[in-house]
Amino acid sequence: MLGRSNKVKLLTVTALVVAMAAPMAQASELRIGMRADPDLLDPARGASVAGRLIFASICDKLIDTTPQGSFRPQLATEWEWSEDNRSLTIQLRPDVKFHDGTSLDAEAAKFNLDRYRTDPLSRRKTELQSIESVEVVDPLTVRLNLVQPDAPLLAALADRAGMMMSPEAVQAAGEDIGMNPVCAGPFKFVERVAQDYIKLEKFEDYWNSDEVFIDNVSFLPIPDDSVRLLSLRSGDLDMIERVAPTDVSIVKEDSNLTLIQGPSVAYDLISINIGHTDRADSPLGQDARIRKAFELSIDRNAINQVVFDGMFVPSNQHEVPGSQYYDTTNPVPERDVDAARALLQEADVPNPSFTLNVANSPVSQQVGQMVQAMASEAGFDVKLESLESSTMASRADAGDYQASLVIWSGRPDPDANVAPWASCDGFLNWGKFCDENFDKVLSQARQSTDINERSEFYKQAVGIYSEAVPHIVLYHYTTLFAVRDTVTGFVPFPDSLIRLQGVKIAE
Fold first, then answer.
1. ∠427-150-318 over CA atoms, to 5°?
2. pTM
3. CATH 3.10.105.10 fits 264-478, yes or no
4. pLDDT tens digits along 361-373
5. CA separation for the pair 75, 72 (Å, rounded)
């Protein structure tokens, strides 16, 4: 039988053992594998899909979208069009702080919008070209006065053109603001090592902090889909984006993983250089018949079945088939090698040669190889060049390409899906296609808020670019994410962005 002193010692030791066994409170970290490394993290200058993934965590927008594709408040609580649709009044959310502690107010909103629409380096100028002036109505209200009605403006403000950065930080950093972005999102930027990782940490003064349950986030670019999935299965990652459709069965069979699937407005297209630098001086760049022959040599259904296990949607337009704005009178053309050869004979170029740039991911390379093989049967000599995504985009932007297989993540408004690629001043119109009638049709569509009327204008636009073939849309995506079973609360959106509000990770 133990004496009193021994009992006390035993209880003390027991308490110590229990205390040591109790889990220590640890900061939660979410590790996300992404397919590509982003370009510059400045909403004014960014153009990559990977950049938008990062922006979703660090830079809130005036307006956000819902999982159904409609608009909802974010940094703005409400907005209202004037009776003539020539002005848009926006009410800002009170008590919003930037990551540097400064406040978001009407002056800050005006600073950002003016920067996006006037800065010589801004890629947002086309999206905001309808704005004649930004007026501060009161400390939390701005009014956008327009040159003409612009229905797609809401969609622009729900993307990079609506992201608010700290004016003080922008003025201090100048062109280098993308190296250390200071926004008003749930996480703030910590560190970036190119091609390796981007680290973020929770912003304690975030206006919607009750919905943020993660302390730290790391984004790791891993172009190889198989390696990205392997890292998830081994526990080195907690979440990955853009699961290869051919890997879906692997995810479903792994009891530690969960597949998250949703609709997507994203699509892949082949951009063709037809008028930007001397790289456009090729039969493909100078003759629409050859570009049409190239399109006819491609079997979109075969690509979908072989590369994407039949999970994607073959398409020839910027709007997904079934959309209100899809032109059913211009369906996806069937592959026709004989018709392709006939067009090449008509153009007197039976064996045109060009280089197709593809991203350095296995899936993109596989699509490129299938396109190469199919086109060769019609007489084309297609050479493939594999590049890192941001390098490929920067080279195309400079006109240093003949054709590039690229992704567009898609937008909730049809104008933002076609205008960047095909309007004369579109910021993704790398090949410099320019048709005055096309731009006129888009201008008419922007001035109407009637869906049926706008649909007719966009169908006219389909007819114009289908004849000119400045690019070839191949298919629309299905959103595919995979997470470990410790991750809960993630909801997919049609824009394929990773919104971390509501997401939790078990310790």
1. 50
2. 0.76
3. yes
4. 889 999 999 999 9
5. 10
